[in-house]
Amino acid sequence: MRDNDQDRLRPRTRLIHTGRPSPALGRRFVNPPLVRGSTVLHPSTADRFAASQEYLDQALIYGIEGTPTHFALEDMVAAIEGGTRCQIVSTGLNALAVALLAYARAGGHLLMPDSVYGPTRSFCERMLKPLGVETEYYPPTESPDAIGAGLRENTIALFIESPGSHSFEMQDVPALARIARAREIPVIMDNTWGIHVFQPFQHGVDVSVQALTKYVGGHSDLLLGAVTVSTEAHWVRIRTAAMLLGAYASADDCWLALRGARTLAVRLDQQMQAGLTLARWFADRPEVARVLHPALPGAPGHAIWRRDYTGAPSLFGVEFHPRIAHEKIIAMVDGLRLFGIGASWGGYESLVLPSLNLKRTHGTAFQGAAVRFHVGLEDTADLLADLTQAFEALA
User: Fold this and answer.
1) Domain range spanning residue 128?
2) Which of 184, 240, 212 is closest to 81 using CA atoms?
3) What is the per-residue pLDDT across 246-274, written as a single tens digit (0 to 9) for each?
4) DSSP strand pairing (225-229 vs 207-211)
């Protein structure tokens, strides 16, 4: 399929037809082959030295620059997010590191939401800070103008994560992007929650980071990350940083991610509906103070979600009333039979994780104990029955 044909396809169709062998090849398998390799052989010395100038492209030079398996997945992720180019790396955290280091400089200032993914915060404090980069954390619920007032002459990037990993605050991405762009400051966004349902580059984002470990992989058996960009100028920064850092991903994991992405749309649809069913159940429980699910009417950030998103995944938070003792919350979590206690999400299985030890610069995220839920592909009635029996521990 030609590139201009791809541009006319709707997102669900792109998931099926992007990153597959060209029909021009004639007889072919449906899926691209798995290509592993380190050394690339060249037909001549001249070809070898010509290839060394092509590291910004999908050129076969050495394994670390990628293989046809990597390139197929990069094309797919770029198509999913509506970007121009994509760099695949080994993990979501590796993708965040590549994106931040691409713009980092000594004496620079980074503006980041207080609700940011914990490992991202640790990277800023333990890696960027010793390199001379100051990270300032802003309250994610502040107005775009208030957040924009924190931009400085030496600001290297405005970082956005919407919604927050555990507290699920939604940010006005288009408004923030307009403010940053007026100052010629790049916008980097962790868009893992919004995969397929939020188009970052339509809303002014310059660099989008994905943990493909989650919904794209879909089966809880791989670790993978992606950095997608809006323009060639940003691509030069990201690709150069990735090559200098030796950022790489297993071709086997890329092949698995390609396979997982083919069913991404139907899994997201199913898990979104199941997640909303459970979210409404939580909202009706007297033990619950708030359900933090942006797609749930009445939940914090719902208006932004309704305006900018075409759907939602099945990851959300539940804040319990402060009167519920912490020990009872833990007993409830331990009593669940179908929800595994685990830190990831996006797979086919349901998960639960207490939101403990959240670092905050500006106050606290919750008044009562909070628990994060990921809803998998189990029968929703079975999940509700499991929650009902586990909630007996809160009596």
Assistant:
1) 3-261
2) 212
3) 999 999 999 999 999 999 999 999 999 99
4) antiparallel
